[in-house]
Amino acid sequence: MQTTRWALAALLVLAGCSTTKFENSQLTAASCATKSPPAGLASCNAERRSFDATHEERPLILVAISGGGVRASALGWAILEQLKEQKYTNAAGESRRLIDDVAVISSASGGSVPAAYLGLYGPDGLDNLEHDFLSQDNMQTLGSETLRPGTWFSLVFSGNGRTDQVRELFDERLFHDKRFRDMNREGRPYVILNATDMASGEVFSFTPQRFDDICSNLDNERISVGVASSSAVPVVLEPMAFHNYSKADGCPITTMPQWVTNQLDTKELPAARFQNVELYKRARYAYDLRKGSNPFRTRDYIYLVDGGLVDNLGIHGLIEATTAHYAPEIVNVGKKDRRSILYAMNAGLVRKLVVVIVNARSDPVNDIYTSPDRPGLLAMLGAVASDPIDATSSSMNSQLRVLMDELKKADQVTHSMKVYDIEVDFDLLDPNEPKQKELRDAVKIIPTSWTISAANLAVVEKASRQLMQHNPCFQNLLLDMGITPDFPVSPELAAAGCQ
Amino acid sequence: MSIEFLYVHFEDPTGSPVSCDVLADGQAEGPANKLLMLEGGSYVISLDSTQPYQPAQIALALGGTSQIRPKILVFQFAAA
To answer: Residues A477, A482, A488, CA angle at the centre, nearest 5°?
Structure first.
């Protein structure tokens, strides 16, 4: 009871003593990628990344990395390292790594660390993440050394639950004050760092399109702000604050994108909202952020918390970048001709679509299922924090399954694209294999924190190798690419388990 | 988020298929005369504005088909 009172007091103190610091800057006409046409600009932030789809032997790889603190950072990093290890010979006879074919990487919370790191430093810099972050005692740096090996909640008790400190940690260890413009470069993957809009529960992604919606300059934004927003665990950390500069003096964006206007136009397209309510809601959210004349909500400020609250797998961003008709044009389909991923698929330019979903969900031991005593307040807080996240993750994963099935179904008609869905989830370790079972049990109890012990990091790496090497679709991909890995591949398993 | 299928048939005045892009709400989604995937929803479908002959745009609802039964659109040339 004493602990509960202490916890509540700490929460109340933290909730009541914050000064708002806004993290973003306004777009100006000078910063726009294009000049304003007579009808006005609907977009301004530049998009410089592009995946070259003119080489048909190359797979197009999409990656989503879940939240789960540094456990998720480590798992995401380990999976990317394995994509880096596998090499094939391209049409020019040169050796090429699978990681060079990652076109999109979407993430939530702890998964945003390796996603942004890859986006900034590229595949060649990825090795340094272990030294720079994974093997460091980050919780000690954040001031909770007395409570190690505590979880994020130890930050509350230590009085250091400030997102700014976490952002500074990211800058000091990882990003060194680099900006989104440093990731927004030719040859880099399209990185989608996902946070949650606290006011509406919408996914808020750090993408040029979303920052157009709030008339804010993404290129100028610190990468650490994106990663900290994506991982600002509610209660433990404060939300990150942003101004909505739409309709502000000097904002060069003056018109709505056509897709938003059309979805909300009930005169010309009266059935639009009934056809796809999710698409309609996305249009309405963009419309509200852009302060349309008939808003559902007028949003002057945006407060962002952990992206894991609404999509802990980062799948929403992945699906939107892949199949939304307004998706960014990040694929090079010819000489200086950039189109969306969907366009490239429709044009038959994508022969192999690889989707890697990395889920670092843990399942720590607790006494709820062994104790005859009714769970107390803290146990309930824990359940409230984790159960809905698991449920939404499961729901998002189901949506992705449906999409994958439909893409595979399309291939049955067009015979132009093969889909490889590679799911990495600790629950997929084989419980009937003693070594895998032992590994599963060890990895599922790693706490959600910003520090991971050397032993636990080794366990995550080992589990990641088991999960990838035994994955039928990964094996299938390696066989189809003519890659001979240094682990056994079963054509039977690859054929039966990847359809 | 469901995927629906669309086929836009487009020929020039001689009856030859025209190679051009299909636009949904102004965004290029893929070539005409080919099976296209599109997220279920309502769109204004038009063709690439660089074509010498411009057909009228068509408002279209795509949705509710769980099978691959593409909506087929036939665009007519507008009067010169």
So the answer is: 70
